[in-house]
Amino acid sequence: MRIKGRRNYNPLWQPTAQQVMIDRISAGPITVLLIGTCTNFAIFLMSNPHLKKNIKHIYIMGGGVRTKNPTGNLFTDYTSNPYAESNMFGDPFAAYQVFHSGIPITLIPLDATNSIPISKNFFNTFEQSQNTYEAQYCFQSLKAARDASQLGDKFYTRFFMWDSFASGVATSIMSKSNKPNGENEFAEMEYMNITVVTSNEPYGVNDGSNLFFDGHDIPRFNLTKGGVHSGHVQTGLRDPFCIVKNGKGKCQVINCPQHTGRFNFTTEFPYYKKVLYKPDFGSNKLGKPVVFDMDMSAGDFLTLFYLLKVPLEVINLKAIIVSPTGWANAATIDIIYDLLHMMGRDDIPVGLGDIFATNQSDAIFSSVGDCKYIKAIPHGSGGLIDSDTLYGLARDLPRSPRRYTQENSLKDGTPQKQPLALEVWKSVVKTLDPGSRINILTNGPLTNLAKIILSEKNTTSIYQDVYIVGGHISRGDWDKGNVFTIHSNEFAEFNMFLDPSAAKTVFDSNLNITLIPLGIQRRVGSLPRILEKLQETKRTPEAKFASRLLSMLYGLQQSHVLYRHVDKFSQEILGALVLAGDLKPTMQVKPVKVLAEGVESTDGQTMIDEKDGKLVKILEDVNYTAYYDLFANRLNDLKQSAVIGSFDEQRRLWSRQPK
């Protein structure tokens, strides 16, 4: 477990990279160290040319310069671009701006860092010499990388001290400021004229790959037509332009006690004790088995609270499967573990689904792929940064001993890994009582469910009902969808758009589907009303946390246009209430079809199709007043309430000796 400082992310109050750089560089002469892509710093230079005079020197880790042989490290596909280094490849135009800024630069390139692999001797020596907390952390990180690499002893010849070597060179040079030629303790230096290739010849040919030129009468940033930036830009790992038959790809593009850390987790909390909370069901008759498929949006966590509060005699939440193709990154799975820990349900397994939507991962290297649909989720405010931190509130949840664990990692000599969604599903199926059937509630893209269907054909007997929160049945041109970031697609709903192929697979199946579409969700999406009901009592920790989260959403929605869409998250709770039988809904059976033709302007649209549609139950109406009352009353019920309310409560427990 990690230690936590008092500072944390706060929506709209978090300083931007540009703000921080302007403040620091305006204050006087400064040195800059870049060990990732150059995007942030290039934007700064282009936006604040008057501050360049305050930058004394730039140290950059990246690029490969000293040999004509391929020196890149894009290990996911050397066949198209064997020359590029990932920091330069991530934003070559930004790197070009930095290199041509006129500011003195020291480059620590890939061909230099690759000269010092992590040797086995170094690894073993480091393992025996961890005298500071930061050294312990660094070694554990290095060990995790080795265990996850699946390379065995080859790890010691293929893993290098990239960023740490660059940092060492930079600090050594800065500490010897009286040496004019960059003399340092780690490397020999030489002067070279260097540029960054941002596009491929022939220049000036508009082939649809170069967004600086294609479709613009005047090129972006006033670039020169026919200049070095105007050629073909690599469009993907398998870009046909870059692959030469029978040839190489042609595209280019801590152990010192001084300043040591003050504490680690066990010294900060001397009485920390690992505890897992699991309920004792005894002889109680449990309710219908349910698997919750979520994409970790704010609304999904509110839904999870509700499901955990429904009496066990009504709903037996068997597992959670997670789709990281929606509103949060895969690492957000730790928040699920924390919430389950808070509610005393460390017994519920959590499975992680595929990182990419159906047919979007690379055919050869599945851990990379296309972002055709996930690009619709905002990356900054109102999007991933808020979901990944639960709007800055995730830090307040109790910390679970269960965490995401990368594949092939070891703990006390025992292999560990994060369970996958399909593995968790199969485990649930094996543990079903005879005659039992699984109910599924999906609150995100249907990636996981589609994969389950395709992996287990002719097994529809194990499914009871599938409740799908998503889709939009438009009633006319005025009745739009909610994919507000893709202007060409006016009628799709996010959960269908984020993986339309998966949605089509599900709707083409023989499952008993109940659809909770966007139209009915919008009728119960009043943040003020749900807040009013929650705040009448707020007796339980879960009700208090939900109230804080909803208050945060409402406040942000009222104060900034980037958050105008966040009421959608309060609407997502509706599926759980329908599943639990707490509402008396009005349903209609209609033939529904989902479009998935690879066309951005129509993918994910859901429509009534008498000829080709699948008959599904569609939620048409509910008692809206009852909806708000039921949610608030359920979370305020003292039964099945939190066993530990917050991280502050844990902090107090771990800071004093048990009686």
UniProtKB/TrEMBL annotation:
Keywords: Membrane, Transmembrane, Transmembrane helix
Origin superkingdom: Eukaryota
Inosine/uridine-preferring nucleoside hydrolase domain segment(s): 16-201, 290-628
UniProt xrefs under InterPro entries: Inosine/uridine_hydrolase_dom, Ribo_hydro-like
Gene3D superfamilies: Ribonucleoside hydrolase-like
Pfam families in UniProt: IU_nuc_hydro
One Gene Ontology molecular-function label: hydrolase activity, hydrolyzing N-glycosyl compounds
Residue ranges of the TM segments: 21-46
Protein family (similarity comment): Belongs to the IUNH family.
Protein name in UniProt: Inosine/uridine-preferring nucleoside hydrolase domain-containing protein
Species of provenance: Quercus rubra
Phylogenetic classification of the source organism: Eukaryota, Viridiplantae, Streptophyta, Embryophyta, Tracheophyta
